[in-house]
Design a protein that fits this description.
Number of helices: 47
Number of strands: 29
Structural class: alpha/beta
Helix content: 40-55%
Distance between the termini: 82 Å
Radius of gyration: 31 Å
């Protein structure tokens, strides 16, 4: 270190040297301080290199300044090897290309930031794939896989990443760069020194090397020397965790996809019989051999009754086996031979379930894949949570029984229950003991469990890590494991990295005092973990500075981050990164700041007080009270990558998250707090004045987030509004005042809703009791339409009594949706009523306007609860309204009424599909013509209801239906309306628009009105609600059912 280290100085000095991006601000440093591990270490700065030359210059700078440098891919590593105190090189942003494909040579040339799942999707079209398959394969990068020598469930057949490395392009710490196949010529001093070290230590290397089938611990020195003294650096670099060199490109070997696959599930009465069967099965050449012991099966029986009932009585251990071959008969013969040997000849298994059909294989794998959701359910409950720190020991398969039994004894000794499963064919066992790391005793138990587990692994000649790497978790145990060989590791490290700047402290420790419990993300006394009480006090103390809405002050504690449940959401996230590729913003914007987990990390830093107004450029004298953390939120707009930190509230990340963390809810809570303070300067006086006027009508949030207000205003102004919207001057005025982008195409507002003559102002607030309303011809329970055969069962729906919740789009822009739905329901014998209703509140919620959203929810719940009490089901034609009624209201109002409405709300397409399944919808009366593309909105998918609309449309004769891929249109309600987000929303939707244009459908069928608006904007193809098409085929039947 030559000068005082300062992130901003690094940013300033490096920006002129590289083409990529450099960030030294506190927000980026906070975002890169965690990964999918138990640690938190804040870096000095973050570099996003665009090419190998950027990497070279970054290394030159780091060496000159004496700053450590750590490579990072997707941040999915479990051992803390992608965290560091110096510079973080994030390869995932720009260096993620597939540069060349040589199918004749069965090889590909890639950059380190390319995601494994993306590579295999390309290769699949050519009948090839890259075999190593870690569970994070849809998210992890190839550079990270090389660094950890990653493998997975299929490693018994295909091996690990090291077996597929043909050539690596390296950058050393002295900034030299070369391909490994030319290392002897380009770096003779290095290869000569490695040859010397390995030759001198050959006996020690063989003596200390683990006897396990796979190993990602220490440096792989056994495979460095080939033939007559030839050096191969590839096996050494695989699993070196970025401590020896940086990889900027790689030639990888790829193989043919298997033609046929078959699976079998073997049931055993005890562990010993199962482990005795492992070598017998391995001899037959399986591609997968997984084990699930009694702890796993007990969890399945307790947590998933349906799966548990599939386990025969007396089952204490399972083996899941998969075979590959060229023909079905070949697969069937392999399974038959295994069953004959293991079940009949040796009597080890007492039953076997075979599967050759893909759907049946999925059912077999369901038991193995149940581990993550069930384990994560444990993480959501209680003080103890699964901790990932001894999760990757591997032993010889012959030692499996001894290791698992010993592991059970250790966990029972320290009262740390854990679920045991893993790759039996490789002897690689996964377990995550439950501990409370927020107390000193929990941390002590973690240390003791790790020490005793690794001592057991050493006794059995195993390895500390089969596929995850050492990182910060295991480096301190390497001396105990390898003894004198650790000095050889140090010699290798010094040969590659004499300046010691590449990921220091990993594999080769910096000091003897290093411990796996240093730098814990959550530990004893953590301010987020233990600060709920102070948090509430802080909110109250800062309330004088918060611009409050006209509601009770006491309600503030239930509307934003003061809720303990939100704090628990923040605690739960362990950074696995599974949410990344589901996020439409991340897909378009890229970068760690755009990931959903970044929002949790940022929230944690803000609420802990580590990131506050002072560090964000605010007042230096505010101290560290919890309330001052809130004042940091609005300042994020000026210092953070605010475009990346936005949230569409699409719920996709929650759907993918193993822990079901509601990251959108956290983001919206932060947005609400940000709104509660004066916004940053920069608005013109006209915009500020319009906001003041708008707040007199509704004192909280943006007018764009109130579709009912906008539509009623439009309807009231009539032709004047149309003329204003149709002129360029009017559009510019609206953009400068309301923030509505001048190019946004808006649908026509209908003068009357459905039923005809009904006012669209959400009335009925004065008379709630028995709904004796005098507003248009809304139907009260005593004036319902239809034959009223309430009480009859419809599949899994309780009756045919419907309370229709139409939503703003059907009410103001497309009243035909409600009309045709009611006709379909009437002809099916349903009783339909129209409860008084306001906007569902989701647009306001998405804008951070918790207070107005709660008011709308409260109004709607009063009427809908009365309908539910009288036996009606709430049916809505808008997926976002369904999301609000089924999910958001439960969070906004934690009441029995909200729960009841949520349980009794169904999407209209789901309801119609149930009617059709019960033969109540009737037969189609006419054939349709043409082709439609079917798009399921994000909220529909998040609710798991995307199949109903497609199934109904496919029943319409003559209609050609093309389901679109899983892409977001980018609209996200008011998000895509605003001048700030219009362009971004169109970029997000571009892949969907291209797909629609390629299909050239006559219409796009989607039940989301916002999606219809956006799709028309991007393609000029009109949208249509599926119920309208369904009515064209089924409607106007002569007889009611």
């Amino acid at each position: 270190m030559k000068r005082t280290r300062d992130g901003r100085r690094v940013e300033k000095e490096l920006k002129g040297r590289i083409r990529g991006e450099v960030f030294g601000d506190v927000v980026h440093r906070a975002l890169y301080s965690t990964a999918a591990c138990i640690y938190r270490i804040q870096p000095l700065a973050v570099i996003l290199p665009r090419d190998a030359e950027d990497v070279v210059r970054s290394v030159e700078y780091a060496r000159a300044e004496g700053i450590p440098l750590t490579a990072r891919g997707a941040g999915t590593g479990l051992a803390g090897q992608t965290l560091g105190t110096g510079l973080i090189l994030d390869f995932s942003r720009y260096m993620r290309g597939l540069l060349a494909v040589d199918f004749e040579g069965s090889r590909v040339r890639v950059q380190p930031g390319l995601v494994l799942g993306d590579l295999n999707r390309v290769l699949k079209g050519y009948g090839k794939f890259f075999p190593p398959d870690p569970s994070s394969g849809e998210h992890c990068t190839l550079g990270g896989m090389i660094a950890n020598n990653a493998s997975g469930a299929h490693s018994i057949r295909y091996g690990a990443t090291k077996d597929y490395l043909l050539d690596l392009s390296l950058v050393l710490s002295d900034s030299r760069s070369f391909w490994t196949r030319e290392a002897g010529k380009r770096a003779p001093d290095l290869t000569g020194r490695i040859r010397e070290v390995v030759r001198e230590s050959r006996t020690l290397i063989e003596e200390k090397a683990p006897r396990s089938r796979k190993n990602s611990s220490g440096y792989n020195l056994r495979e460095v020397l080939r033939g007559e003294g030839e050096i191969d650096l590839n096996p050494l670099l695989a699993g070196s965790e970025g401590t020896l060199a940086l990889v900027t490109e790689a030639w990888l070997r790829v193989v043919d996809l298997p033609a046929e696959v078959g699976s079998a599930l073997l049931y055993f009465a005890d562990l010993e019989r199962a482990t005795d069967a492992v070598p017998e099965i391995s001899a037959l050449g399986p591609s997968v051999l997984e084990i699930m012991d009694r702890s796993f099966l007990d969890l399945v029986r307790e947590g998933d009754r349906a799966l548990g009932e599939e386990l025969p009585p007396g089952t204490r251990t399972l083996l899941l086996v998969e075979f590959e071959g060229q023909t079905p008969s070949e697969i069937q013969e392999k399974v038959r031979r295994m069953q004959e040997r293991v079940e009949k000849q040796l009597g080890l298994a007492f039953a076997c379930r075979c599967a050759f059909d893909p759907q049946e294989q999925t059912r077999l794998w369901a038991i193995r894949k149940a581990a993550s959701p069930l384990l994560n359910r444990m993480e959501r409950e209680g003080e103890k949570r699964p901790a990932r720190f001894i999760e990757d020991v591997a032993v010889e398969p012959a030692q499996l029984s001894r290791y698992i039994q010993g592991l059970h004894r250790i966990l029972e000794k320290y009262q740390a229950p854990g679920v045991i499963f893993g790759h039996a064919g490789d002897g690689n066992i996964h377990v995550n003991p439950q501990l409370d790391l927020r107390c000193e005793e929990g941390v002590r138990r973690l240390e003791r469990i790790a020490a005793e587990t690794y001592a057991l692994a050493k006794e059995l000649k195993g390895t500390l890590s089969g596929e995850h790497g050492d990182g910060r978790l295991r480096t301190s145990f390497l001396k105990e494991m390898y003894g004198e060989l650790c000095q050889v590791f140090r010699q290798v490290k010094e040969a590659f990295d004499p300046s010691g700047i590449l990921n220091p402290g990993i594999i080769v420790p910096l000091s003897e005092r290093e411990s796996l419990t240093h730098h814990l993300r959550f530990g004893p006394g953590d301010p987020v973990e233990r600060g709920e009480g102070r948090f509430r006090l802080g909110l109250g103390a800062s309330a004088r500075r918060i611009r409050r809405p006209p509601e009770k002050e006491t309600e503030m504690a239930g509307t934003a981050l003061s809720q303990p449940s939100l704090l628990r959401e923040i605690e739960k996230c362990h950074g696995c990164g599974y949410c990344k590729d589901q996020c439409p913003l991340f897909r378009e914007v890229g970068g760690e700041g755009a990931t959903p987990r970044a929002k949790v990390n940022l929230m944690r830093e803000l609420l802990s007080g580590r990131l506050g107004p002072a560090s964000l450029g605010g007042s230096q004298g505010l101290g560290r009270a919890w309330g001052t953390s809130f004042e940091a939120f609005p300042r994020l707009r000026t210092v953070a990558p605010w475009k990346e930190m936005k949230c569409l509230n699409c719920k996709r990340c929650r759907q993918e998250c193993p822990l079901e963390i509601d990251i959108p809810r956290l983001s919206l809570a932060a947005r609400g707090i940000s709104l509660s303070f004066p916004r940053p300067s920069g608005r013109g006086p006209l915009e500020a004045g319009v906001e003041i006027l708008a707040r007199r009508h509704r004192p909280w949030g943006s007018p764009l987030a109130d579709p009912a207000f906008l539509a009623r205003t439009h309807r009231a102004l009539g032709p004047l509004a149309e003329a204003f919207l149709g002129s360029s001057l009017g559009r510019r005025i609206l953009q400068g005042t309301l923030g509505l982008h001048r190019d946004r195409i808006l649908p026509e507002v209908h003068r009357n809703g459905f039923p005809e003559g009904r006012e669209g102002r959400g009335g009925g607030e004065d008379k709630i009791g028995n709904w004796k309303l005098e507003i248009g011809n809304w139907k009260s329970p005593g004036e319902a339409v239809g034959e009223g055969r309430g009480g009859e069962k419809i599949g899994n729906l309780p009756n045919r009594k419907v309370a229709y919740f139409e939503g703003c789009f059907a009410r103001y822009y497309s009243p035909e949706i409600g009309r045709v739905l009611v006709e379909l329901l009437e002809q099916s014998g349903c009783e339909v009523i129209f409860p008084p209703q306001r906007c569902c509140g989701l647009p306001k919620l998405s804008a951070g306007d918790f207070y107005s959203a709660r008011a709308d929810a409260r109004h709607n719940l009063k009427f809908l609860q009365e309908a539910v009490d009288r036996g009606y089901q709430v049916v809505t034609t808008c997926p976002s309204c369904a999301m609000a009624l089924k999910v958001e209201y439960r969070e906004l109002w934690k009441t029995p009424e909200a729960d009841a409405v949520a349980r009794n709300t169904v999407d209209a397409l789901e309801y119609l599909l149930a009617l059709d399944g019960a033969k109540l919808l009737g037969e189609p009366r006419r054939a349709l013509e043409g082709a439609v593309a079917y798009h399921a909105s994000c909220h529909l998918k998040a609710l798991g209801l995307q199949g109903a609309g497609l199934a109904l449309l496919q029943r319409c004769p003559g209609l050609s239906v093309h389901p679109l891929s899983d892409r977001c249109c980018g609209m996200a309600g008011s998000f895509g309306l605003s001048k700030e987000n219009f362009s971004l929303s169109m970029e997000i939707g571009k892949p969907l628009f291209q797909e629609i244009r390629a299909l050239s459908p006559q219409q796009v069928a989607t039940s989301c009105g916002a999606c219809q608006i956006q799709i028309y904007q991007g393609t000029a193809v009109h949208g249509v609600h599926p119920v309208i098409l369904l009515h064209q085929a089924y409607g106007n039947a002569k007889e009611k059912r």
